């Protein structure tokens, strides 16, 4: 019999790996930037016997982790995007093409509200997904804040950026401030369009914001949007609880 302390929920994104024990799945996850660093963490925490993982990387990239787990008798449960689960229906014809992080964030959100909702996951990419009555209506994939800045700086010769983030949208008077505020304007635009889009058909709805860059959405705090620590990990927790304890 496994306990919740022995179970680790692992969200493998394009930039980083976030993980948390099932016993405290609502807290802020730990983060490692490489699979190697994550494996080292596992070595130091031998009480972990079971992983529930979601990965948006190629299978070959996570193969060494699987091999490590096989050698150390750690059970790996990999969750994949489904046509339907937990009362949520996917709109993709080929569900294998939908990033499992999007699916899991929706699985978590559908448990948190009965209203139509939007999930915005801001990381390497910004994904936006619309759900009403348990039906995924469709969504958007846009570049994330860092990806945007990176693409801009890479494809121009005289534009450069720094790592400073504006909390408020301002007018830049240096190249760096123009870039940071331009990318923030684009992020705010995604949010504004998402709100406008769901408002076309619904008066009452929730907007959930999650992901490593959710703090860029601090400007939404007065209009009822909900900032969630990590909805992908919370979605994994639902699968883990169902599989282990239901
Ligand atoms: N070297 C880097 N490469 C990419 N993003 C970086 C880098 N350094 C800092 N960041 C920041 O981290 C954000 C992604 O953070 P994090 O990995 O926590 O988000 P995420 O939602 O988990 O993304 P993913 O699931 O794609 O890994 C980027 O949007 C960016 O602001
Ligand atoms: C869009 C990302 C990169 C966001 O992490 C991920 O969900 C992904 O790789 N998706 C595959 C394409 C799709 O969801 O249609
Ligand atoms: K993400």
From TrEMBL:
Keyword Transferase applies: yes
A UniProt-annotated Pfam family: Pan_kinase
Sites where the protein binds substrate: 92, 99-102, 175
Catalytic activity: (R)-pantothenate + ATP = (R)-4'-phosphopantothenate + ADP + H(+)
InterPro entries: ATPase_NBD, Type_III_PanK
Cofactor-binding details, from the entry: A monovalent cation. Ammonium or potassium.
Pathway entry: Cofactor biosynthesis; coenzyme A biosynthesis; CoA from (R)-pantothenate: step 1/5
Residues binding K(+), per UniProt: 121
Keywords, ordered alphabetically: ATP-binding, Coenzyme A biosynthesis, Cytoplasm, Kinase, Metal-binding, Nucleotide-binding, Potassium, Transferase
Subcellular compartments: Cytoplasm
Cofactor(s) named in the record: K(+); NH4(+)
Residues bound to ATP: 11-18, 124
GO molecular function: kinase activity
Location (main, coarse): cytoplasm
Active site positions, chain numbering: 101
Keyword Cytoplasm: yes
EC number: 2.7.1.33
Family: Belongs to the type III pantothenate kinase family.
Assembly behavior: Homodimer.
Annotated function: Catalyzes the phosphorylation of pantothenate (Pan), the first step in CoA biosynthesis.
Protein name as annotated: Type III pantothenate kinase
Organism: Alteromonas ponticola
